[in-house]
Specification:
With 450 residues, the protein is an alpha+beta fold. Helices cover 70% and strands 6% of the residues. β2 (365-368) and β3 (373-378) form a beta hairpin. α2 (16-82) packs antiparallel against α8 and α5 packs antiparallel against α8.
Length: 450
């Protein structure tokens, strides 16, 4: 049903103005969809990029807590073994200045989506702080073996257990080592590590969901892009088809009809059909005008070519912008009249017209405008056909030089101009005459162009 409607509409004609408006609206709509889809896809990629960054940041937070805990462990163990105060200083600097564990927890709290991961990280933080009490006690045991060494503020209120006070220095060091190297100590470290691992697991779960959702969104966006591209490509093909069917093909057919001097087909867009009807009306009026001319009034009685009156009419009716004008002059015709007589001269003139007619189309016009001067209107031509004109001129002179008909040989000199270069039709013969003069000056029997 829709196909029939479209075909019926095409037969009746579509307005190029409306078609152009529809194509503009379609192109604008598709472009808007493309821009929106591109923007949406870009936003989706930006969101995924931010999620990846957040993922890495949260992973760094979880790992930072473990790294800080391991740093504290390393320094308390080295202090217990060596007694070097640098290690207790490193320990306290991490615990109270760097505070990487606390910062990691606080930073993760800024991401509401990581609530579950934060719970596990806080468990790890709680276990780490609980372990610090055991590490402080181990460091206090070592400090008690070093009289005169200042006790850090954080441990000033701590006191050794009564059973540990009476231990010797070596026993205190041994007890301190047990506190930070025992299986119980490492079990508590494992609790911290487990909390960090569970936090990382939750982070991965969160962002796996985010990435799956983002991937689904990207797939949907890409599918929409494919549809938009399909619509765009289909629109381009439709536009090419309609432009060719309604505009280009009718124009090409019209050009061929004009060259063939035939009426135009009234097909294509409404505007073109209007132009075709107007042209056909003018074409038929012109043909009727030519046909209605009084033959004797417009034609030369001797040769049958158009006479001067016919020439004047043709000059006003023909589209000179697409016409070659050839001014043809018989070479040494007076000599033939003087030596062979006027009867022979008349037969030569008839032969010239007959030869010209044989070498030009039926649509071209041949005029006799003087005793031995002729004009040929070679219509529906462009300015690039000089070689064709030269070929015709050479063949005409070969035919006129044939004496098998009993007539003396004769040649013609031709001057040619194209009407596209002439603004005043009345000056056309002047330009052709200038070219004819050039042919005469070069020895006659040839053709020149102005």
């Amino acid at each position: 049903m829709i196909t029939k409607l479209i075909k019926r509409r095409l037969r009746r004609g579509i307005s190029l103005k409306r078609l152009n408006l529809c194509l503009i609206v379609l192109a604008t709509g598709v472009s808007a969809l493309m821009i929106y889809s591109t923007y949406s896809l870009s936003s989706s990629f930006s969101g995924l990029s931010r999620s990846i960054i957040e993922h890495r940041v949260l992973e760094d937070d979880a790992k930072s807590l473990m790294e800080a805990s391991d740093f504290l462990t390393e320094n308390v163990q080295r202090y217990v073994i060596t007694g070097d105060s640098r290690f207790i200083h490193n320990y306290l600097s991490e615990a109270f200045d760097s505070r990487r564990r606390e910062k990691a927890v606080d930073h993760m709290a800024d991401f509401p989506a990581a609530a579950e991961a934060l719970v596990q990280l806080r468990k790890a933080m709680s276990a780490s702080k609980k372990l610090m009490d055991q590490e402080y006690y181990a460091m206090l045991l070592i400090l008690s073996t070093k009289p005169g060494e200042p006790v850090p503020e954080v441990m000033e209120k701590m006191v050794l257990k009564e059973e540990d006070r009476g231990l010797s220095a070596s026993e205190k060091r041994r007890l301190a080592e047990i506190n930070v190297f025992s299986e119980d100590y490492y079990r508590q470290k494992e609790i911290i590590r487990q909390g960090m691992s569970e936090s990382l697991y939750e982070i991965h779960q969160i962002f796996d969901r985010v990435e799956r959702k983002s991937a689904d969104s990207h797939f949907a966006e890409i599918s929409r892009e494919r549809w938009i591209i399909f619509i765009q490509v289909s629109g381009i093909f439709v536009m090419i088809f309609l432009t060719s069917h309604l505009g280009i093909n009718p124009v090409l057919r019209a050009a061929a009809k004009i060259r063939a001097n035939s009426p135009l087909q009234e097909t294509g867009a409404k505007e073109f059909r209007f132009l075709a009807r107007a042209y056909n009306q003018m074409y038929h009026r012109f043909r009727n005008s030519l046909e209605n001319l009084n033959y004797k009034a417009s034609h030369d009685e001797l040769t049958g070519a158009y006479n001067r009156s016919g020439y004047d009419l043709l000059l006003s009716a023909i589209d000179l912008k697409t016409t070659y004008v050839l001014l043809v002059d018989a070479d040494n015709f007076k000599t033939i009249n003087d030596t062979c007589g006027h009867d022979t001269g008349d037969r030569v003139l008839k032969k010239i017209v007959k030869t010209l007619s044989a070498n030009f189309r039926s649509d071209d016009y041949i005029c006799r405008i003087g005793g031995d001067e002729f004009v040929v209107f070679m219509v529906h031509t462009d300015i690039g056909m000089q070689q064709l004109v030269e070929t015709k001129a050479a063949r005409i002179n070969r035919m006129l030089g044939d004496t098998s008909d009993g007539l003396p040989p004769i040649s013609v000199s031709i001057g040619v101009t194209h009407g596209s270069a002439i603004s005043d039709p009345k000056a056309i013969i002047r330009y052709a005459d200038q070219a004819l003069y050039e042919t005469k000056r070069n020895g006659k029997k040839g053709v020149s162009f102005s």
